[in-house]
Design a protein that fits this description.
This protein is 35% helix and 31% strand. It is an alpha+beta fold and 462 residues long. Among the domains are: 35 residues; 99 residues, conserved putative lor/sdh protein from methanococcus maripaludis s2 fold, CATH 2.40.420. The protein has a 6-stranded antiparallel beta barrel. Strands 3-5-6 form a 3-stranded antiparallel beta sheet. The longest helix is centred in the N-terminal third of the chain and has 34 residues. The radius of gyration is 42 Å and the shape is elongated. It starts with 11 loop residues before the first helix and ends in an 11-residue tail after the last strand.
Protein backbone atom coordinates (compact mmCIF):
# COMPACT_ATOMS: atom_id res chain seq x y z
CA UNK A 1 0.00 0.00 0.00
CA UNK A 2 1.61 3.21 -1.06
CA UNK A 3 2.43 5.71 1.66
CA UNK A 4 0.17 8.76 1.98
CA UNK A 5 2.17 11.86 1.25
CA UNK A 6 2.71 13.96 4.34
CA UNK A 7 1.77 17.59 4.40
CA UNK A 8 4.69 19.69 5.40
CA UNK A 9 4.23 21.54 8.74
CA UNK A 10 3.25 25.13 8.28
CA UNK A 11 5.73 27.61 9.57
CA UNK A 12 4.67 30.82 11.36
CA UNK A 13 6.19 32.78 8.59
CA UNK A 14 4.33 30.80 6.00
CA UNK A 15 1.07 31.28 7.90
CA UNK A 16 1.52 35.01 8.07
CA UNK A 17 2.44 35.08 4.39
CA UNK A 18 -0.60 33.06 3.49
CA UNK A 19 -2.81 35.37 5.60
CA UNK A 20 -1.37 38.42 3.87
CA UNK A 21 -1.83 36.75 0.46
CA UNK A 22 -5.48 36.12 1.22
CA UNK A 23 -6.03 39.65 2.62
CA UNK A 24 -6.83 38.32 6.11
CA UNK A 25 -5.44 38.87 9.60
CA UNK A 26 -3.09 36.51 11.22
CA UNK A 27 -4.66 33.82 13.50
CA UNK A 28 -3.14 35.36 16.63
CA UNK A 29 -4.98 38.62 15.93
CA UNK A 30 -8.15 36.66 15.49
CA UNK A 31 -7.73 35.08 18.88
CA UNK A 32 -7.01 38.50 20.41
CA UNK A 33 -10.27 39.88 18.91
CA UNK A 34 -12.21 36.98 20.30
CA UNK A 35 -10.72 37.64 23.74
CA UNK A 36 -11.65 41.30 23.58
CA UNK A 37 -15.21 40.41 22.57
CA UNK A 38 -15.52 38.00 25.46
CA UNK A 39 -14.13 40.58 27.86
CA UNK A 40 -16.60 43.19 26.66
CA UNK A 41 -19.47 40.77 27.16
CA UNK A 42 -18.33 40.08 30.71
CA UNK A 43 -18.11 43.80 31.42
CA UNK A 44 -21.61 44.26 30.00
CA UNK A 45 -22.98 41.51 32.24
CA UNK A 46 -21.23 43.01 35.25
CA UNK A 47 -22.81 46.36 34.43
CA UNK A 48 -26.25 44.80 34.18
CA UNK A 49 -25.76 43.07 37.51
CA UNK A 50 -24.59 46.32 39.09
CA UNK A 51 -27.64 48.13 37.69
CA UNK A 52 -29.96 45.43 39.04
CA UNK A 53 -28.31 45.63 42.45
CA UNK A 54 -28.68 49.40 42.39
CA UNK A 55 -32.36 49.14 41.53
CA UNK A 56 -32.94 46.60 44.30
CA UNK A 57 -31.10 48.79 46.77
CA UNK A 58 -33.14 51.79 45.66
CA UNK A 59 -36.39 49.91 46.29
CA UNK A 60 -35.15 48.63 49.61
CA UNK A 61 -34.39 52.16 50.77
CA UNK A 62 -37.75 53.60 49.60
CA UNK A 63 -39.17 56.34 51.78
CA UNK A 64 -41.74 55.03 54.27
CA UNK A 65 -44.30 57.17 56.09
CA UNK A 66 -45.65 55.75 59.33
CA UNK A 67 -48.25 56.66 61.92
CA UNK A 68 -48.56 55.10 65.36
CA UNK A 69 -51.98 53.72 66.25
CA UNK A 70 -53.83 55.56 68.98
CA UNK A 71 -57.23 54.78 70.45
CA UNK A 72 -59.85 57.53 70.06
CA UNK A 73 -63.58 58.04 70.55
CA UNK A 74 -65.12 59.41 67.37
CA UNK A 75 -68.64 60.84 66.95
CA UNK A 76 -70.40 61.36 63.62
CA UNK A 77 -72.98 64.14 63.32
CA UNK A 78 -75.59 65.23 60.82
CA UNK A 79 -76.86 68.82 60.82
CA UNK A 80 -80.59 69.06 60.10
CA UNK A 81 -83.18 71.80 59.84
CA UNK A 82 -86.40 70.44 61.35
CA UNK A 83 -89.94 71.72 61.02
CA UNK A 84 -92.14 70.83 63.98
CA UNK A 85 -95.58 69.23 63.77
CA UNK A 86 -97.47 69.35 67.07
CA UNK A 87 -100.93 69.26 68.58
CA UNK A 88 -101.33 73.02 69.03
CA UNK A 89 -104.38 74.95 70.17
CA UNK A 90 -104.64 78.73 70.17
CA UNK A 91 -105.80 80.54 73.31
CA UNK A 92 -108.31 83.28 72.50
CA UNK A 93 -108.88 86.31 74.65
CA UNK A 94 -112.43 87.41 73.80
CA UNK A 95 -111.38 90.56 71.97
CA UNK A 96 -108.46 91.46 74.20
CA UNK A 97 -105.32 92.78 72.55
CA UNK A 98 -103.01 93.32 75.53
CA UNK A 99 -102.13 90.50 77.93
CA UNK A 100 -100.70 90.40 81.40
CA UNK A 101 -99.30 86.88 81.57
CA UNK A 102 -99.12 84.95 84.81
CA UNK A 103 -96.81 82.20 83.50
CA UNK A 104 -93.50 82.21 81.66
CA UNK A 105 -93.28 81.83 77.90
CA UNK A 106 -92.97 78.09 77.19
CA UNK A 107 -93.97 77.02 80.71
CA UNK A 108 -95.76 73.70 81.22
CA UNK A 109 -99.26 74.17 82.66
CA UNK A 110 -102.10 71.94 83.82
CA UNK A 111 -105.77 71.98 82.90
CA UNK A 112 -107.51 75.04 84.33
CA UNK A 113 -104.26 76.86 85.10
CA UNK A 114 -104.68 80.65 85.04
CA UNK A 115 -102.50 81.97 82.25
CA UNK A 116 -103.07 85.68 82.88
CA UNK A 117 -105.48 88.50 82.16
CA UNK A 118 -106.69 89.99 78.88
CA UNK A 119 -107.14 93.74 78.40
CA UNK A 120 -108.18 95.92 75.52
CA UNK A 121 -106.88 99.30 74.44
CA UNK A 122 -108.22 101.49 71.67
CA UNK A 123 -104.77 102.87 70.91
CA UNK A 124 -103.76 100.30 68.30
CA UNK A 125 -100.39 101.92 67.61
CA UNK A 126 -99.35 101.49 71.24
CA UNK A 127 -100.24 97.80 71.56
CA UNK A 128 -96.85 96.35 70.57
CA UNK A 129 -94.80 98.68 72.77
CA UNK A 130 -97.18 98.23 75.70
CA UNK A 131 -97.09 94.44 75.42
CA UNK A 132 -93.29 94.42 75.26
CA UNK A 133 -93.05 96.62 78.36
CA UNK A 134 -95.49 94.47 80.33
CA UNK A 135 -93.62 91.28 79.42
CA UNK A 136 -90.33 92.86 80.44
CA UNK A 137 -91.71 94.00 83.79
CA UNK A 138 -93.22 90.57 84.42
CA UNK A 139 -89.89 88.87 83.69
CA UNK A 140 -88.03 91.14 86.09
CA UNK A 141 -90.64 90.75 88.84
CA UNK A 142 -90.65 86.98 88.43
CA UNK A 143 -86.87 86.83 88.68
CA UNK A 144 -86.81 88.93 91.83
CA UNK A 145 -89.73 87.18 93.53
CA UNK A 146 -89.11 83.56 92.59
CA UNK A 147 -85.36 83.47 92.17
CA UNK A 148 -84.60 83.76 95.87
CA UNK A 149 -82.15 86.23 97.28
CA UNK A 150 -78.41 86.57 97.44
CA UNK A 151 -76.39 83.95 95.57
CA UNK A 152 -79.39 81.73 94.75
CA UNK A 153 -81.26 84.66 93.24
CA UNK A 154 -78.21 85.71 91.26
CA UNK A 155 -77.84 82.17 89.92
CA UNK A 156 -81.48 82.04 88.83
CA UNK A 157 -81.17 85.41 87.10
CA UNK A 158 -78.03 84.34 85.30
CA UNK A 159 -79.72 81.13 84.11
CA UNK A 160 -82.60 83.17 82.73
CA UNK A 161 -80.17 85.48 80.95
CA UNK A 162 -78.49 82.47 79.37
CA UNK A 163 -81.88 81.09 78.30
CA UNK A 164 -82.79 84.33 76.55
CA UNK A 165 -79.36 84.52 74.95
CA UNK A 166 -79.67 80.97 73.57
CA UNK A 167 -83.17 81.72 72.32
CA UNK A 168 -81.89 84.75 70.42
CA UNK A 169 -79.03 82.79 68.85
CA UNK A 170 -81.38 79.96 67.88
CA UNK A 171 -83.81 82.38 66.22
CA UNK A 172 -81.04 84.08 64.24
CA UNK A 173 -79.60 80.71 63.19
CA UNK A 174 -83.04 79.68 61.96
CA UNK A 175 -83.27 82.87 59.91
CA UNK A 176 -86.01 84.44 62.03
CA UNK A 177 -85.73 87.85 63.67
CA UNK A 178 -89.25 87.68 65.08
CA UNK A 179 -89.23 88.34 68.81
CA UNK A 180 -85.55 89.30 68.85
CA UNK A 181 -86.25 92.70 70.39
CA UNK A 182 -88.41 91.14 73.11
CA UNK A 183 -85.73 88.56 73.90
CA UNK A 184 -83.16 91.31 74.07
CA UNK A 185 -85.28 93.18 76.59
CA UNK A 186 -85.74 89.99 78.62
CA UNK A 187 -81.99 89.38 78.53
CA UNK A 188 -81.29 92.87 79.84
CA UNK A 189 -83.90 92.35 82.54
CA UNK A 190 -82.25 89.13 83.64
CA UNK A 191 -78.83 90.77 83.74
CA UNK A 192 -80.26 93.68 85.71
CA UNK A 193 -81.77 91.23 88.21
CA UNK A 194 -78.45 89.43 88.41
CA UNK A 195 -76.62 92.65 89.25
CA UNK A 196 -79.22 93.44 91.91
CA UNK A 197 -78.97 90.01 93.54
CA UNK A 198 -75.21 89.69 93.24
CA UNK A 199 -74.78 93.14 94.76
CA UNK A 200 -76.86 92.23 97.78
CA UNK A 201 -79.83 94.38 96.81
CA UNK A 202 -83.21 93.52 98.33
CA UNK A 203 -85.42 91.51 95.98
CA UNK A 204 -88.74 92.42 97.66
CA UNK A 205 -88.18 96.17 97.43
CA UNK A 206 -87.16 95.99 93.78
CA UNK A 207 -90.13 93.80 92.89
CA UNK A 208 -92.52 96.17 94.63
CA UNK A 209 -91.35 99.12 92.55
CA UNK A 210 -91.73 97.12 89.35
CA UNK A 211 -95.23 95.94 90.30
CA UNK A 212 -96.30 99.54 90.84
CA UNK A 213 -95.13 100.46 87.34
CA UNK A 214 -96.88 97.43 85.85
CA UNK A 215 -100.13 98.16 87.66
CA UNK A 216 -100.08 101.76 86.47
CA UNK A 217 -99.76 100.58 82.85
CA UNK A 218 -102.84 98.34 83.02
CA UNK A 219 -104.91 100.71 85.15
CA UNK A 220 -106.01 102.64 82.08
CA UNK A 221 -106.97 99.50 80.14
CA UNK A 222 -110.29 97.69 80.05
CA UNK A 223 -110.21 94.21 81.56
CA UNK A 224 -111.79 91.65 79.22
CA UNK A 225 -111.34 88.53 81.33
CA UNK A 226 -109.02 85.89 82.70
CA UNK A 227 -107.08 83.44 80.52
CA UNK A 228 -107.06 79.77 81.50
CA UNK A 229 -105.72 76.55 80.01
CA UNK A 230 -108.41 74.33 78.53
CA UNK A 231 -105.87 71.51 78.16
CA UNK A 232 -102.59 70.53 79.72
CA UNK A 233 -99.54 71.51 77.73
CA UNK A 234 -96.86 74.11 77.19
CA UNK A 235 -98.10 77.67 76.92
CA UNK A 236 -96.36 79.92 74.38
CA UNK A 237 -96.95 83.64 73.98
CA UNK A 238 -96.41 83.73 70.20
CA UNK A 239 -98.31 82.10 67.36
CA UNK A 240 -97.55 81.80 63.64
CA UNK A 241 -100.99 81.09 62.19
CA UNK A 242 -99.91 77.58 61.16
CA UNK A 243 -101.12 75.75 64.26
CA UNK A 244 -103.84 73.98 62.26
CA UNK A 245 -101.47 73.17 59.36
CA UNK A 246 -98.40 71.58 60.98
CA UNK A 247 -100.32 68.79 62.70
CA UNK A 248 -99.21 65.29 63.80
CA UNK A 249 -101.61 63.72 61.29
CA UNK A 250 -100.03 65.71 58.45
CA UNK A 251 -96.53 64.61 59.48
CA UNK A 252 -97.49 60.96 59.26
CA UNK A 253 -99.09 61.15 55.80
CA UNK A 254 -97.45 63.97 53.81
CA UNK A 255 -95.32 63.43 50.71
CA UNK A 256 -91.98 65.11 50.11
CA UNK A 257 -93.60 67.63 47.74
CA UNK A 258 -96.29 68.45 50.30
CA UNK A 259 -93.65 68.93 52.98
CA UNK A 260 -91.66 71.23 50.70
CA UNK A 261 -94.76 73.36 50.14
CA UNK A 262 -95.34 73.55 53.89
CA UNK A 263 -91.78 74.72 54.56
CA UNK A 264 -92.13 77.42 51.89
CA UNK A 265 -95.30 78.55 53.60
CA UNK A 266 -93.58 78.63 57.00
CA UNK A 267 -90.52 80.48 55.71
CA UNK A 268 -92.32 82.92 53.44
CA UNK A 269 -93.68 86.34 54.27
CA UNK A 270 -97.32 86.15 55.33
CA UNK A 271 -99.72 88.28 57.30
CA UNK A 272 -101.41 86.70 60.31
CA UNK A 273 -104.31 88.17 62.20
CA UNK A 274 -103.27 87.70 65.82
CA UNK A 275 -105.90 90.05 67.23
CA UNK A 276 -107.57 88.40 70.20
CA UNK A 277 -105.01 85.55 70.28
CA UNK A 278 -103.18 85.39 73.61
CA UNK A 279 -100.93 82.49 72.66
CA UNK A 280 -101.11 78.76 72.12
CA UNK A 281 -100.98 75.50 74.04
CA UNK A 282 -98.71 72.76 72.73
CA UNK A 283 -100.38 69.54 73.84
CA UNK A 284 -99.99 65.81 73.53
CA UNK A 285 -97.36 63.31 74.60
CA UNK A 286 -95.80 62.99 71.14
CA UNK A 287 -94.68 65.50 68.55
CA UNK A 288 -93.15 65.16 65.10
CA UNK A 289 -90.44 66.79 63.01
CA UNK A 290 -89.71 66.64 59.29
CA UNK A 291 -86.64 67.41 57.19
CA UNK A 292 -85.61 67.23 53.54
CA UNK A 293 -82.02 66.06 53.08
CA UNK A 294 -79.82 64.96 50.15
CA UNK A 295 -80.32 61.28 49.33
CA UNK A 296 -76.73 60.47 50.31
CA UNK A 297 -77.27 61.99 53.75
CA UNK A 298 -80.54 60.09 54.17
CA UNK A 299 -78.66 56.79 53.82
CA UNK A 300 -77.10 57.49 57.23
CA UNK A 301 -80.51 57.27 58.94
CA UNK A 302 -82.37 54.06 59.75
CA UNK A 303 -86.11 53.85 60.32
CA UNK A 304 -86.96 52.65 63.80
CA UNK A 305 -83.70 53.87 65.27
CA UNK A 306 -83.61 56.54 68.00
CA UNK A 307 -81.05 59.34 67.75
CA UNK A 308 -79.77 61.86 70.26
CA UNK A 309 -80.28 65.40 69.00
CA UNK A 310 -78.64 68.58 70.25
CA UNK A 311 -80.98 71.49 69.77
CA UNK A 312 -80.26 75.14 69.19
CA UNK A 313 -83.23 76.11 71.34
CA UNK A 314 -83.41 78.31 74.40
CA UNK A 315 -82.26 75.61 76.81
CA UNK A 316 -79.66 73.93 74.61
CA UNK A 317 -81.72 70.77 74.98
CA UNK A 318 -80.67 67.23 74.15
CA UNK A 319 -83.64 65.22 72.86
CA UNK A 320 -84.33 61.71 71.62
CA UNK A 321 -85.82 61.48 68.12
CA UNK A 322 -86.99 58.24 66.53
CA UNK A 323 -86.84 58.02 62.73
CA UNK A 324 -90.28 56.96 61.49
CA UNK A 325 -89.97 57.60 57.76
CA UNK A 326 -87.08 57.74 55.30
CA UNK A 327 -88.56 58.07 51.83
CA UNK A 328 -86.57 58.87 48.66
CA UNK A 329 -87.77 61.77 46.53
CA UNK A 330 -85.44 62.18 43.56
CA UNK A 331 -82.13 63.61 44.69
CA UNK A 332 -83.56 64.22 48.16
CA UNK A 333 -85.33 62.21 50.82
CA UNK A 334 -88.01 63.00 53.38
CA UNK A 335 -87.15 62.21 56.98
CA UNK A 336 -89.86 62.20 59.66
CA UNK A 337 -89.08 61.81 63.36
CA UNK A 338 -91.14 61.59 66.54
CA UNK A 339 -90.28 62.40 70.14
CA UNK A 340 -91.94 62.41 73.57
CA UNK A 341 -89.43 64.94 74.93
CA UNK A 342 -90.59 68.50 75.49
CA UNK A 343 -88.20 70.41 77.79
CA UNK A 344 -89.34 73.58 79.47
CA UNK A 345 -88.99 76.49 77.04
CA UNK A 346 -88.64 74.21 74.03
CA UNK A 347 -92.02 74.64 72.36
CA UNK A 348 -91.64 78.16 71.04
CA UNK A 349 -90.61 77.93 67.37
CA UNK A 350 -91.73 76.18 64.18
CA UNK A 351 -88.29 75.69 62.67
CA UNK A 352 -85.24 74.44 64.51
CA UNK A 353 -81.62 73.68 63.63
CA UNK A 354 -80.30 70.55 65.31
CA UNK A 355 -77.20 68.40 65.37
CA UNK A 356 -78.00 64.70 65.20
CA UNK A 357 -75.61 62.22 66.77
CA UNK A 358 -75.40 59.33 64.28
CA UNK A 359 -72.97 57.13 66.17
CA UNK A 360 -70.11 57.19 68.65
CA UNK A 361 -67.33 54.67 68.13
CA UNK A 362 -64.13 53.90 70.04
CA UNK A 363 -61.16 52.28 68.32
CA UNK A 364 -58.04 52.97 66.29
CA UNK A 365 -58.21 55.74 63.69
CA UNK A 366 -56.60 54.74 60.37
CA UNK A 367 -56.33 56.71 57.10
CA UNK A 368 -58.45 55.03 54.43
CA UNK A 369 -55.48 54.97 52.05
CA UNK A 370 -53.53 52.72 54.43
CA UNK A 371 -55.99 49.82 54.10
CA UNK A 372 -54.89 46.81 52.03
CA UNK A 373 -56.24 43.30 51.41
CA UNK A 374 -54.33 40.01 51.50
CA UNK A 375 -55.54 36.41 51.15
CA UNK A 376 -55.95 34.57 54.43
CA UNK A 377 -53.36 31.82 55.00
CA UNK A 378 -56.15 29.69 56.47
CA UNK A 379 -59.09 30.23 54.10
CA UNK A 380 -57.68 32.04 51.07
CA UNK A 381 -60.34 34.73 51.41
CA UNK A 382 -59.34 38.38 51.31
CA UNK A 383 -58.57 39.90 54.70
CA UNK A 384 -58.61 43.66 55.30
CA UNK A 385 -55.65 45.06 57.14
CA UNK A 386 -52.68 47.41 57.08
CA UNK A 387 -48.93 47.13 56.71
CA UNK A 388 -46.89 48.09 59.75
CA UNK A 389 -43.17 48.58 60.19
CA UNK A 390 -41.83 46.12 62.75
CA UNK A 391 -38.15 46.89 63.18
CA UNK A 392 -37.02 47.10 59.55
CA UNK A 393 -39.54 44.58 58.19
CA UNK A 394 -42.93 45.14 56.61
CA UNK A 395 -45.58 43.10 58.45
CA UNK A 396 -49.30 42.70 57.70
CA UNK A 397 -51.81 43.27 60.52
CA UNK A 398 -55.51 42.58 60.08
CA UNK A 399 -58.25 45.01 61.15
CA UNK A 400 -62.03 44.96 61.62
CA UNK A 401 -63.64 48.20 60.43
CA UNK A 402 -66.26 49.56 62.83
CA UNK A 403 -67.13 52.83 61.07
CA UNK A 404 -66.23 54.63 57.85
CA UNK A 405 -65.64 58.36 57.94
CA UNK A 406 -64.53 60.98 55.43
CA UNK A 407 -60.92 59.98 54.68
CA UNK A 408 -60.45 57.60 57.59
CA UNK A 409 -61.93 54.57 59.32
CA UNK A 410 -62.32 53.47 62.94
CA UNK A 411 -61.22 49.87 63.53
CA UNK A 412 -61.42 47.52 66.50
CA UNK A 413 -58.69 47.62 69.07
CA UNK A 414 -56.92 44.35 69.78
CA UNK A 415 -58.83 44.15 73.06
CA UNK A 416 -62.18 44.66 71.33
CA UNK A 417 -61.32 41.99 68.77
CA UNK A 418 -60.40 39.48 71.46
CA UNK A 419 -63.60 40.27 73.38
CA UNK A 420 -65.67 39.74 70.23
CA UNK A 421 -64.11 36.32 69.74
CA UNK A 422 -64.89 35.30 73.31
CA UNK A 423 -68.40 36.78 73.47
CA UNK A 424 -70.95 34.10 72.65
CA UNK A 425 -73.67 36.73 72.18
CA UNK A 426 -71.68 38.82 69.69
CA UNK A 427 -72.94 39.39 66.17
CA UNK A 428 -71.91 36.36 64.05
CA UNK A 429 -70.73 38.68 61.27
CA UNK A 430 -68.45 40.47 63.72
CA UNK A 431 -67.10 37.19 65.05
CA UNK A 432 -66.48 35.97 61.52
CA UNK A 433 -64.65 39.19 60.70
CA UNK A 434 -62.29 38.80 63.64
CA UNK A 435 -61.87 35.02 63.55
CA UNK A 436 -58.28 33.80 63.81
CA UNK A 437 -56.84 33.03 60.39
CA UNK A 438 -53.10 33.36 60.74
CA UNK A 439 -52.82 37.14 60.72
CA UNK A 440 -52.30 39.04 63.97
CA UNK A 441 -54.49 42.02 64.87
CA UNK A 442 -53.32 45.60 64.85
CA UNK A 443 -52.15 46.70 68.29
CA UNK A 444 -51.77 49.97 70.14
CA UNK A 445 -48.65 51.94 69.10
CA UNK A 446 -48.03 49.82 65.99
CA UNK A 447 -46.36 51.89 63.27
CA UNK A 448 -48.88 51.88 60.41
CA UNK A 449 -47.32 52.44 56.99
CA UNK A 450 -49.30 55.24 55.39
CA UNK A 451 -47.00 55.80 52.40
CA UNK A 452 -44.57 53.61 50.48
CA UNK A 453 -44.03 51.65 47.23
CA UNK A 454 -43.81 47.97 46.38
CA UNK A 455 -44.79 46.88 49.87
CA UNK A 456 -45.32 43.24 50.74
CA UNK A 457 -45.26 40.99 53.79
CA UNK A 458 -41.71 40.37 54.93
CA UNK A 459 -40.06 43.12 52.89
CA UNK A 460 -36.90 44.45 54.51
CA UNK A 461 -36.54 48.22 54.64
CA UNK A 462 -32.87 49.33 54.60
Amino acid sequence: MPDTPKTPAASPHGEMAEARRLGGRPARGKRRGESLLAGGFVLLMLGLVAFAVYQCARHLTVNINTLRTQEITDTAYSDLVLYLFRDEETVTAGGGNVFLYGVRDGEKVGVGKTLGSAYVTMDGDAVAALQTRLDLLNDRIRLLENGGSGSSGATAALQEAERQYRATLAAVAAGSLSGTAERGEALLAALDAYRTQAGGGGSSAGASVLRQERDSLVSGLTLVGELSAARAGWFCYTTDGLEAVFTPARAQSMTADEFRALTEQADGDRETDAYGIAGKLVCGSLWYAGALVPSGEAERFETGRTYRVRCGDAAGSVLSLTCLRNEPAGEQALLVFSSPDMPDGFAEGRRMSVQTVLDTVSGYRIPTGALVSLPSPATGEDVTGVYILSGNRVVFRRVCVLAERNGYVIVMTSGQAQAALEDETADPEVQSAVAADGWSFLKLNDRIITGGRNLYEGKVIA
